[in-house]
Design goal:
The protein is flat, with a radius of gyration of 39 Å. β6 and β7 form a beta hairpin. It is an alpha+beta fold and 661 residues long.
Length: 661
């Protein structure tokens, strides 16, 4: 080890000065983060508790509405009015109750869900509310309550003033997700519905009511008053609360720069992704309109557990940041004074540190050579001992990091092997696809070549069968020849349809009619005598351009497979509908059969694959159906679990010119 020309005392002092300097910087950085994180963690814990309080206020309001609607529905006067179909005596009474209990909506429907009394707008009746999820439960004699999004059309039936209260212009907001939408016409309502029953528990109708949240500040101001008690920091409110409809503020006490409520502003993109897209809580700092807050967000869900908005509480971040800065200034001043004192003491006690420092230098040289197991043995309990302890910890960390690098190398090798395996499997899949394509060409050629001879065999067999005496022993054999030849001809036909599917002969069709024709063909079969058919056809389906014969064949294949899977005993639900977002019509076939194993499900649409006994299936039905649907630019998918039944979903595209038909 080379000894420098300047004295060891100066060397130690200079070394310690460097160590103290960098150690102080590291300590300040870590201390700053620790203090800040501690304060922020405490703030996050508080705001999480505050969010629980906000939910308590929110749910309490929902329960108040539910309790009011339930008690009102049990009034004998309401029961008598519905029995006599005389609604005038209860109209004014219900309207007074609506105003007294600060409800925006209080209506009555008949047992079918048709509105017969609308207290806010008595002239607007006759609309069907039976498909509303909350009223649907009430029509099943179940009291229910939940937040819900209602459209402008429904709000207009309640009154133009309510529709205008709900409509909110969207204000561009910093850090919010991009959106081209300028105005939100719909509204969020806290809604409850209760069945109206007679003394024999028969359903007479439904009473439902609700409160529109848009521009209604009762809940958010109650949360603010209960949790934050009007506390301020440098003239600004510390605590805020907000109810969002999706990502739009519809009820809030967050303010703009001019002091007005920030109605129409939007939540930040980061929160939008976490809460609305992923359905998770978000408890962290977030930019709220024009400042940073310690926030807590949770999704608001409707009665079907779909996310329709966000409940938020938050506190200004600045008070906590300012507190952290004050603590760090005090900490820095105290640390500086301590460093000066240590330097003075170090000057007079240099000799005590020479040996420990030499040991540390010796240790660094060994570590530099790769000996990470070497430890510095220093018995001192002062700063040198602390330095030695830190040094030993550093070597441990280096050793652990080195081991992790080795483990990561092994893990990387394993991942490379796994990826290589996946690529090989993909290559095998491509080879299999090419084989299937070749098989299709071969099948087409074979089918074409044997089709004519089969036709001749079938014709001459029929002729002989007609001429031969039924009592001869050859009659049954000839009949079997005709039957098996006919079966061969059907197989050849299937091969041709699979290998060379003809182009669809399109026309304007109603998909409900096509499904009904397919079903009418199959319902007369013996196999369907003990199968219950449930039809859920959408009456608002647009017509589409398609080959009705091909689609009918697809539906028949699916229906036959479902019936055979249930062995002629069970229920088959057929549902049609429209997916506006995907611009598609869907047809869903759901059976109560034994389900399909995963290994079978993955091969359902392969040609010649069948689970049926030999002679009872060619394995071409679903393959041909898949080909027909692909020709129509649609999709066909299967959802199934063993012992839980199977669902086939066919989706067909809607062209723009047919949407309004």
């Amino acid at each position: 080890m080379k000894i420098p020309h300047f004295s060891l005392r100066k060397k130690i002092i200079l070394s310690f000065l460097v160590i103290i300097f960098f150690g102080g910087i590291i300590t300040l950085i870590l201390g700053s983060r620790l203090i800040r994180n501690t304060l922020i963690s405490q703030a996050q814990a508080k705001v999480k508790h505050d969010l629980s309080s906000a939910w308590m206020v929110f749910n309490e309001r929902v329960n108040d509405i539910k309790e009011f609607v339930t008690l009102t529905s049990e009034r004998e006067r309401l029961e008598a009015s519905l029995i006599n179909k005389d609604y005038a005596p209860i109209s004014n009474c219900l309207n007074r109750l609506r105003k007294k209990y600060k409800l925006d909506i209080l209506n009555v429907t008949d047992p079918k869900g048709v509105v017969i009394l609308r207290t806010r707008n008595p002239s607007a009746t006759g609309d069907d509310q039976s498909q509303n999820p909350i009223l649907k439960r009430a029509l099943s004699k179940e009291v229910s309550a939940s937040p819900q999004i209602i459209s402008r059309d429904i709000l207009l039936k309640e009154g133009k003033d309510l529709a205008e209260q709900a409509a909110i212009d969207i204000i561009p907001t910093p850090k919010a997700a991009e959106s081209s939408k300028k105005r939100e016409p719909s509204g969020m309502i806290l809604k409850a519905a209760s069945p109206i029953l007679d003394k024999e528990n028969n359903l007479l109708g439904v009473l439902y009511g609700g409160v529109l949240i848009n521009r209604n500040y009762e809940i958010v101001d109650s949360v603010k008053e209960m949790v934050y008690k009007e506390e301020k920091y440098k003239g600004r409110e510390i605590g805020t609360a907000t109810i969002f409809q999706q990502d739009l503020r519809i009820s809030t006490n967050v303010t703009n720069e001019d002091g007005s409520r920030a109605i129409g502003t939007r939540v930040s993109k980061k929160v939008n992704d976490a809460v609305l897209k992923n359905g998770k809580s978000y408890i962290d700092r977030a930019f709220v309109v024009n400042d940073w807050y310690i926030t807590a967000y949770e999704p608001i869900k409707n009665i079907n557990h779909q996310i329709i908005g966000i409940l938020y509480v938050g506190m200004l971040e600045k008070p906590y940041i300012d507190t952290a800065h004050k603590v760090m200034i005090t900490f820095t001043f105290m640390a500086s004074m301590l460093v000066i004192l240590l330097l003075v003491l170090l000057y007079f006690s240099t000799n005590r540190f020479i040996n420990p420092l030499l040991k540390i230098v010796e240790a660094t040289q060994k570590i530099a050579k790769g000996d990470l197991s070497h430890k510095v043995k220093v018995n001192s309990t002062d700063e040198i001992g602390y330095l030695a302890e830190s040094f030993n910890k550093m070597t441990d960390d280096l050793d652990a990091a080195n081991k992790k690098l080795i483990e990561w190398g092994k893990t990387l090798e394993k991942k490379v092997e796994e990826r290589t395996k996946e690529l090989r499997e993909m290559q095998a899949h491509l080879i299999q696809s090419e084989k299937l394509a070749s098989l299709g060409k071969l099948a087409a050629g074979v089918a074409h070549e044997i089709n004519n001879p089969l036709g001749g065999i079938l014709i001459y067999s029929h002729l002989i069968l007609e001429d031969i005496d039924k009592e001869t022993p050859y009659y049954d054999n000839l009949r079997k020849i005709v039957k098996e030849t006919s079966r061969c001809k059907e197989i050849v036909k299937g091969l041709l349809e699979f290998a060379r599917p003809k182009e669809p002969e399109t026309s304007i069709v109603n998909i409900n009619d096509v499904v009904e024709k397919a079903l009418s063909i199959m319902e007369t079969k013996t196999l369907f005598q003990n199968i219950k058919i449930k039809k859920k056809y959408s009456s608002s389906l647009p017509k589409i351009t398609a080959d009705s014969a091909q689609l009918q064949q697809v539906f028949i294949n699916i229906i036959i497979n479902a019936a055979e899977a249930m062995e002629g005993n069970g229920s088959l639900t057929i549902e049609t509908g429209i997916n506006d977002q995907e611009k598609q019509i869907y047809i869903r076939f759901q059976d109560t059969g034994p389900g399909i194993p995963e290994e079978v499900k993955n091969r359902l649409f392969e040609p010649f694959f069948t689970t049926k006994e030999v002679g009872k299936g060619t394995g071409l039905g679903l393959a041909i159906s898949y080909s027909f649907i692909r020709k129509h630019k649609g999709t066909i998918k299967v959802k199934s679990r063993v012992n839980e039944g199977s669902t086939f979903i066919v989706k067909l595209p809607i062209k723009d010119e047919h949407k309004k038909q």
